[in-house]
Amino acid sequence: MSTxxxxxxxxxxxxxxxADWDQVVSGVRDSQDERLVVNMGPQHPSTHGVLRLVLTLxxxxxxxxxxxxGYLHTGIEKNMEYxxxxxxxxxxxxxxxxxxxxxxxxxxxxxxxxxxxxxxxxDRAQAIRVMMMELNRIASHLVAMGTFGxxxxxxxxxxxxxxxxxxxxxxxxxxxxxxxxHAYIRPGGVSVDLPAGAVDKVGEFLKEMPKRIKDxxxxxxxxxxxxxxxxxxxxxxxxxxxALGITGPILRAAGLPWDLRKxxxxxxxxxxxxxxxxxxxxxxYSRYLVRMKEMEESLKIVEQALDRIAGPLKGDPxxxxxxxxxxxxxxxxxxxxxxxxxxxxxHIMGTSMEALIHHFKLVTEGFRVPAxxxxxxxxxxxxxxxAHVVSDGGTRPxxxxxxxxxxxxxxxxxxxxxxxxxxDVIAAVASIDPVMGGVDR
Amino acid sequence: xxxxDNLPGSPDSGQTPExxxxxxxxxxxxxRGMFGAEDSGDTSGYGGLVVRRQPQVSTPRPYGxxxxxxxxxxxxxxxxxxxxxxxxxxxxxxxxERLVEVCQKLRDDPALRFELSLGVSGVHYxxxxxxxxxxxxxxxxxxxNRRVRVEAACPDDDPHIPSTVGVYxxxxxxxxxxxxxxxxxFDGHPGLxxxxxxxxxxxxxxxxxxxxxxxxxxxxxxTIPSPDQRRxxx
Lengths: 441, 234
Hints:
A: 441 residues; B: alpha+beta; two-stranded antiparallel ribbon; 13% helix
């Protein structure tokens, strides 16, 4: 209790920072207060990063719950206004760091809409985007379910989840050069084609992953402890979801099969065969089931995309033909994971002055985007991720705003947690699967 | 990228560009960026980049697609300042005092049914005198699988827009965010406080007149100036 406080207005303040519960209990024992206000977070292992929950408790019951966010605000939207359109992908990939490919795709689709080049994105680039997004969806859901298990007291799902996510991370590292923060999707296509052997690696992943998902489901689906901690907990029905603007697995767990991949397809999703899993429980357990089934559907999509990448689309370009937009270099994967394209360097440094000038202008100044505004949205693992992109005709965004599903969905946690038990607050927040990097941006 | 207004003008922004640029009513925009160039519209470090202000557009009927149906069903022509159809998206610029009414009708009318709101975004256009601050609402109809964008503007010296939390409760945090970053006061919001920045923060960081960084960074006693104060390479 280092800071001064006014006991008359704030009541008695107890600071709990470690294992000093005896003090607290003995302090509270004689208290006449019926109401206890507890700050959960911002540094609390089960609040998914720096999220602070202010809970008003009456015994074990949560009377009032409020979320406090902003601890991870990094000004990504503002920073992007000072960088070129292409450099923007480097920022957005850091927002929701568990689904970087989705952030990049939503942003690039917004830029492409402004440029009016949506129809000219090569099919191979679209198929790679779809494959990467679905791999990312699996990774994101694995983290969601893994941490979820740990927060409810089971460490094995966590270990399983992270072990299996590692397989996706390895694929990402092999394909993009980085485990996270890829900046792989670029306006006009993707930054580099799949390296040799990537198709085989994804193929192996497809063989292994169904078993792994089954393992996690075996651990949790009918686990009596897990089911009792999650069933009928944090109930939010369709009316609540609609009022609060909830999308993603929470909405589908309330029974509405609303999935932008089906309802407003992008990147060619209309040509893939998959189902939209729904549940009717409106509770934490249903959200868990929806996510598990979505991973299985994602595997189907990855398989179809891989068939196209390895088959009919083999050798096609992965970046738009328009030299005024398409990044000039095809990066080659060097021994350190990243490298320049030797052919391209030889071309601009040895044979063509114009190509050098063009390269220099495109990379430093960037391309111009006609003035206007556009909204592009995709189905991220957390819900609808929308990019509101405004251009004034220059080489840098005038304004970019992201409709982050974590941000919107996190608003609903008081509606889920109020009136319930303290322990269920953890389950409620975990079922929303908020990533604070995305919430705060 | 082949339209003429995307082609570079002459290096000297004061003279007529060699390429004929149709319908550019406004002067080139001078922007100040990381590299400190102030004399032309160029902030890239070398000459040749001239950005021209686009005129405000208003799309005449027919708008095409389902857009006509939306505007007809809304039937609040006196509340709508202008309708813009651009890049396959419908934007309704609404008078701010009628915003709640328009949203209510968009949500409840059986022919409209925009049940899902995707939040409020803010944009600051310092050059649009009298309507500098825009609140942009994206709506989605699950019933009809349609989208619409509703935009309301307010002047900088009277930054008030009525709150739409009553219609779309999910706007609670979105309006707080827009207030925090742009200073738009949403009248009638149940608790309009900052959400991202600390409660005692000065200014609204995502406005165009707020510099990037904006505060000096301290590192072990040494002070590093904010980005707009640093040495420039122009």
